[in-house]
Write a structure and sequence with these properties.
By secondary structure, the protein is mainly β. It has no helices and 22 strands. The protein starts with 11 loop residues before the first strand and ends in a 5-residue tail after the last strand.
C-alpha cells in the first residue's frame, strides 16, 4: 500500500485512531483527495478528522468496515510520474498531484516545515503546514531549492533563497511552499506551463511562449541583459541584435531547461537559444 494513501469505497463517516502516521486527505482510486468527496452517485464520504495509523488497522465507517495494511518503513513509493534531483535532495510527483521529498533539508528544501534531513520520503506540505500540497503538475529541484507548477499555472517554491530563487521578493529561506510573486511583487505569477531550476535561480515558461526568470544572475543566466540578482521574476529579452530597439522580450518558446549557471530555450520552429555562463562553450 502506498504510504499516505487509502483506497476505499462505500459510504459513512470516518473517525480516527492514535498511532504514528497522519492522513490529512483520503485518496480514492481515481486519484482525487479532498476533505469532502462524493464517490459514485449517492455514496457520500465525509472525513470528520485526520486519521493516524502505524500498522495494520481496521477502520469503522457507519455501517461499513474497511481493513488495510501499512508497514512502517517496509513499503515503496509508487504511482510516481516525475522525479527531480537537486544538490543533495530528491523530489517525486505522484499521479494524484502530491509531492514527496527526501535527503538534505538544511534550508527547508524538502518542504515539510522542518530543517531535518530525511532518509525516507516525507510529503511536502502546503503553505499553512497543516495539509499536504496537492494539485501539482510538474516539479524541479535546484541546488538547494525546489519549485512546483500547479495545474492552474501557478508556481510554488521553497528552500534556500539568498539570491532570490524562490521569487518571493525576499532572501528569507522557506521551509514551506510559498507562491511565486509577479514581476511587480503585488500579485502572483500565473499562466505558466513549464518550470526549470538551476543553481540558485529559477526559470518559467508561459503558455504564450514567453520566459520569466529570477534568482542568481552573476553570469547573466536570467537573460535580462544584466548581472543583477532578482528576487522577483524578470522577463527574458531577445539580444540577438546589438540594436537597443531589438531588445524585446523573447517569444515563441516551447521548452526551457536550466543548467548550473546557464539557460537554454527551444523555439516552436526548432531553433535553440542559450544564455549565461559559457566557460566551456
Amino acid at each position: 500500500m502506498t504510504r499516505g494513501t487509502f483506497l476505499v469505497d462505500g459510504e459513512g463517516n470516518f473517525g480516527g485512531v492514535n498511532a504514528g502516521w497522519t492522513f490529512y486527505n483520503l485518496t480514492f482510486g481515481d486519484g482525487i483527495g479532498t476533505t469532502t468527496t462524493t464517490k459514485y452517485e449517492s455514496n457520500d464520504i465525509t472525513i470528520l478528522n485526520s486519521l493516524t495509523v502505524n500498522e495494520s488497522q481496521t477502520l469503522l465507517a457507519g455501517d461499513h468496515t474497511w481493513s488495510f495494511n501499512w508497514a512502517s518503513g517496509g513499503d515503496y513509493l509508487t504511482n510516481i510520474k516525475q522525479i527531480a534531483a537537486g544538490y543533495s535532495h530528491t523530489v517525486a510527483l505522484t499521479t494524484g498531484g502530491a509531492v514527496w521529498a527526501w535527503g538534505r533539508n538544511n534550508y527547508g528544501q524538502l518542504g515539510d516545515g522542518t530543517t531535518t534531513d530525511r532518509e525516507l520520503p516525507v510529503q511536502v506540505l502546503d503553505s499553512t503546514g497543516e495539509y499536504p500540497l496537492f494539485g501539482i503538475s510538474a516539479i524541479d529541484a535546484g541546488y538547494q531549492h525546489t519549485v512546483a507548477l500547479t495545474i492552474v499555472g501557478a508556481v510554488w517554491a521553497w528552500g534556500y533563497t539568498p539570491y532570490g530563487p524562490l521569487g518571493a521578493g525576499t532572501t528569507t529561506c522557506r521551509k514551506l511552499p510559498e507562491q511565486v510573486k509577479d514581476h511587480a511583487g503585488t500579485g502572483t505569477l500565473s499562466g505558466i506551463s513549464a518550470i526549470a531550476a538551476g543553481y540558485q535561480y529559477t526559470v518559467a515558461l508561459t503558455t504564450g511562449g514567453a520566459v520569466w526568470a529570477w534568482g542568481y544572475n552573476n553570469y547573466g543566466q536570467l537573460g535580462d541583459g544584466t548581472t543583477n540578482d532578482r528576487k522577483l521574476p524578470v522577463q527574458v529579452k531577445n539580444y540577438a541584435d546589438t540594436s537597443i530597439l531589438s531588445r524585446i522580450t523573447l517569444s515563441g518558446i516551447s521548452a526551457i531547461a536550466a543548467g548550473d549557471l546557464y539557460t537554454v530555450a527551444l523555439t516552436t520552429s526548432g531553433t535553440v537559444w542559450a544564455w549565461g555562463r559559457n566557460n566551456y562553450g
